[in-house]
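In this supplementary section we document a worked example of the pipeline. Step one takes a protein sequence of length 968 as its only input; no multiple sequence alignment statistics are reported here. Step two produces a three-dimensional model, which step three serialises into structure tokens for compact storage. The input and output of this example are shown verbatim.
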Amino acid sequence: MLITLRKHRAVLLLAALLATSLMGLGEAQGSASIGVQGFVYGPNGEPFQNASIRLWGFYLEAETTTDSTGHYELSATTTQGFCQLYAFYDDPDTDGYDLLPSQRRLDTGEDTTLSVNFTLQPAATVRVTGQLKPVESTRKVTKYAFEVVDALDGRLIELGEYRLTYGTGMNVQSYFLDLDTMTLIVPADTPFWVEVSSSYQHERYPPSRYRRYRWGSGRTRIETFNEFSMAEGEAFILGAGEVLELDIRKYSLTADMARIHPMVEEVEVDLSEVEGQGFYVAAESHGIQEAKEFLSGIDEKIESQEYEAAYVDLRQAYLKLLSVRGRLEAAVYEAGVSLKILMVFTAVTSVALGALLAANGILKLLLTLGSFASMILYLRQVFPGSAVIEPGSFTSMAAASLLGALLVLSLLPRVLGDAVGEGGMARVGALVAVFSMGSRSLRRRKLRSLFTFATILTLTMSFVALTSFSTSYGLIFNRYGGDKPDVEGIMVRMPHYPPNSEFEKGVFSPIIDVTIEWAWGNEGVVNVAELAENIPSLRPYGRIGDWPIFGVIGVQPDVEPLMSLIDDAVVEGGPLREEGDCLLHRYMRSNADLEVGDQIVVGGVPLRIAGFFGGIGRITDVDGETILPNYQVMVSSDPVIIEVQVCSEAEVVITTLETALRIDRVHVSRIDVGLEPGADLETIGKSMALSREYRVWISEGGESHIAYMGSQIGGKGFPIVVPWAIVILNVVTTMLNSMFERRREIDILSSIGLNPMHIAGVFLAEASILGVTGGSIGYLLGMGLYPVMKSLAWAPVVSQKISAVWLVAALGIAVASVVFGSVVALGWSVGLTPSLTRRWNLGEQETDFRAEWETRLPVRLSDENLEGFLSYLMSYLERFSDYESVPRISSMRLAEEGEARVLSFIYNARETSIHATRTSNVITLARDEEGAYVPTMVSKGDRDSATTTGAFIRKIVIRWSTEQGKKA
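The serialised model returned by step three reads:
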């Protein structure tokens, strides 16, 4: 079939489609007049009346028709060096075209008068149906050409000077003869096939950021030229006047299949290369298998003319292959980046492990070096992509990581140990001390630490090796909404508009004419109904009396599928049918004193009231949502916060589409597509979503589904929730046992001045140390499970967690489990450890921006130790009675109110030159239901001052409790 010749011709043809004109090459100096006359005859020599004669230069220079004798005559003045003269006849009483047009080149460089006769030969018609939807693109194909080729020699058919080339552009016969671009006039009784050449913007997803690798180098081009043939058997042969319909989808899908199959082989080669470097590619291999399953039944669907279903499968197979290729590229790229980060983490983990296992400096260093050497050799063996790095470079990188970690971690305590916060409290230094105490505690309790470490290790290994999360781009098809739609069919909206500011919330992208034309071209479409609505606004579009109009709906009464329901909602007056008419809510009749036939103005457009409605808001569209439009509500002005809400029926006016579009900021927001009976709504809806990046809703059987192209997160392997919960419960039990075991140690820590936050920090530090070391080592061990799983007959379909991001995630899982378990245990152990948790309740009285804040102090007093507690508290407060004291306690007074005791004082501390903490406080010691005295403090002042005062008093109470415990 002369493939090389066809490709060469296709490139030349499509290049010509991009040129501005074919005729500009013959432009002459000045202008010349030309006169042409002659006759047009049929195949048997009969003259044709009303045959069209056209003279083309750069533009259409002149045109005329023949008279009853078949004679024509025309004249023109042209600046072109040559022109083309066309003779064309179409019998309006027959279907298709019966005669082949004829063409003659005329030299027009000088004034001339010519006589040109035409004899038109028998012809047939080919009508190309269906949409040209290349599998690679979601853009509309606007550049295409059809060449009628001789089946005997594979060359373009040329009868005289008439070349049988049709389609779009300015150099095809469709343009010169004003034919439909999908209609071909072919010679009768001549074997032929049709060559299709198209140009379209290639798909840009997924973007290939990893050009350094072979399979990512420049395979995506912005503009793609494509060609395929439309032929059955050896050739088509049509008789005179015969009409043949060819569905272009049949042939384009077959051509796409021929391009996708080599793509499968290329991706499989890429997968083999990546797997050979040590990567675990079970998930990618499964993706290729899914693509093959999509491709497996396409031939049968094409044969049975299920073109839309075939396109859906082919498009999804293509996207699946793109996704696999992108993941392979990303895996190789991220492995090289993550290896360096993993070396640093391994060095830090080794230093932490050495500090955990030994307190002696020399032993600690030896353990650090030994653990680092073991882990770095292990990393060299199991981490994919590490083998491509030379051993010398690998060793240098590892040594630099270890030296950096040792230097930083050795200097950090010395630098931070001297850091002092406000008020003289060494907060950072205390943090270092807390972690040091936690490390010593773990060394003392080796067995408990080992068991906890093992649970964390198991959790992290399971997360790394047996779970998988990945993103992919493709068709998303989900159930939408809960309400039952009132109509079946397909709805199309433009992609979601991301607001750039609060004031753009609710803004939508309008439906354009190209989208409507595209919708009509889909299979089985019998109706396309446009609906217009307003852009949501803070301000009304108009007022009727005192009533604002925030919503405008524009419908096409003759084609709108919801029109019968809108008619049923009219309670007075007539239905909406005429341009310029409108419907209002029935409340307008009484509240605005309106009647049917009255004139109103909305958005500067006059409207005549045709009727009043009620219950429009209950009408639901294909997506199961109300047809009422939205408006904006400002819920906060500083900062500006705007919410989008549905208009009430009384705020909406319904009119015709053309009338609504005359109102500013009213646009077509959706189209409802009706299909012929028996059409497969789901398949066609999915095909529409795959071929264009619109949002498509499908309503069928009382349910609504949405289909659109987008990114989605997929999970494979085993769920991590169960082992994570088990680890948390183990940590809770371990930490509770630890705290009960260390009750006396907690008392000692309190007595030496550590507050409850420091004490809790010791336990959290232990948990953090176990989480970080267990998570890091667990990640490395989890990476080592991939080679083992690869050798198994049954390999879990998971994506390998190569990226350093997954190391952070693994650490997060490990640390979160132990910290969460520790926090739960601490919460259950409030009887052991004093808590800083405060429940501040706002008092009922507020004056001059001052409020009352109440808190209960963490102690219960018997009659025997009441006086001792009061004496201790007052003597402690008297230490701060000097004028220079920070804080300063003044106006202290103790009183008796029945059995209760009341201690009042003023707390005053100047923190900065412009801010001072001052509260007026009353501590009341009253009996509770069990007869014990429970102190409650009420502080008057701002919240921060009350918090500071409460913390100060609670420290005194905790100190008294500790000293009482020692005496006991």
